[in-house]
TrEMBL record:
GO biological process: methylation
Alphabetized UniProt keyword annotations: Methyltransferase, Transferase
Keyword RNA-binding: no
Organism: Devosia oryzisoli
Protein name: Methyltransferase domain-containing protein
Length: 304
């Protein structure tokens, strides 16, 4: 009640008293850190999150990310699976009302437009197999349902999978971690989408390498990122979402072997009234694998 009324310092004092009685209460330390943060006592928040990190073996409360956001620890290179899973399990019932209704979320429609415009250039009305990464409640999938023959969805959150299963959008749904899913596939996807998913993944290189292998030659991928204008490849925002640098992202796409078709910046949504600028990417795995073609040519030369 104190926190809801805006008196976060008093809420922190009360939570301290509770933690004297229950010192191993991980959720209490998480709340204490949040109250201190909102009261402007960052050093006290960091101390609470350090205690939380020691108690939360599964990483459900994201203590490591919270510390990293204030340069008080390392976030790690990949997805904080425990935290992201718990976040969206909790968020699932009100996900669409909050994201679309209150925050002006537009990523699925913007990615859909990019994909359909490219398909039109290629003279395609549909593609075969599509994989929607981080499918959530199906906001991306429902926009592309009529443009694909077979639509698969994968999400780390069981609650999100349950929400989207009720809609009957996807031909198959799987609860799984993104990179592990991609690493299990080999050149069988015509179209891959990831709307506001890689913002929780950290470093792009492992994700891009895995998705290139999963795409068919000539296959398309469309995804979004939150953006920043600095030289760093990425940094972790207080929102616990990663912002990726515009220049480093372009470079990462080239290094991964993707042909960039569209690379645009746009307002993705609003957060606490402020616009969130992001990157929209449409890329393609080259129809001919240059490295493989060179190997074949070298073999022919040796045979000759």
């Amino acid at each position: 009640m104190l926190a809801e009324s805006g008196d976060h310092a008093a809420a922190a004092d009360l939570m301290n008293q509770a933690l004297e009685i229950a010192p191993d209460w991980a959720a209490g330390w998480d709340l204490l850190g949040s109250f201190h943060e909102k009261a402007g006592n960052v050093s006290h928040a960091i101390a609470a999150w350090r205690r939380l990190e020691a108690l939360d073996d599964e990483g459900t409360f994201g203590a490591r990310l919270k510390l990293a956001a204030y340069d008080a620890g390392a976030a790690g290179e990949g997805t904080a699976v425990g935290y992201v899973e718990a976040l969206f399990d909790q968020y699932a019932p009100q996900f669409e009302a909050s994201l679309v209704g209150k925050l002006g979320y537009r990523v699925p429609e913007m990615l859909e437009q990019m994909v359909r415009e490219e398909m039109a250039k290629l003279g395609l009305t549909s593609v075969g197999k599509a994989l929607d990464l981080g499918c959530g409640t199906g906001l991306m999938g429902e926009r592309l349902r009529d443009a694909v023959t077979h639509l698969e969805g994968v999400d780390i959150s069981a609650a999100m999978i349950a929400e989207t299963a009720r809609k009957g959008i996807y031909d198959s749904l799987q609860k799984a971690e993104l990179v592990a899913t991609l690493n299990a596939r080999r050149s069988d996807i015509d179209l891959m989408t990831a709307a506001d998913v890689f913002i929780y993944c950290g470093a792009l290189q492992p994700v891009l390498a895995a998705l290139v292998r999963a795409l068919k030659p000539g296959g398309l991928v469309a995804f979004s990122l939150e953006a920043h204008d600095g030289e760093e490849a990425l940094f972790l925002r207080p929102s616990l979402r990663y912002a990726h640098g515009i220049g480093p992202t372009r470079e990462a796409l080239v290094v991964a072997g993707l042909e960039v078709l569209r690379f645009e910046t746009a307002i993705l949504r609003f957060d606490r009234g402020a616009p969130i600028t992001g990157i929209l990417v449409l890329a393609r795995r080259p129809a001919i694998d240059v490295s493989a073609a060179n190997e074949v040519a070298d073999g022919d030369d040796r045979a000759a």
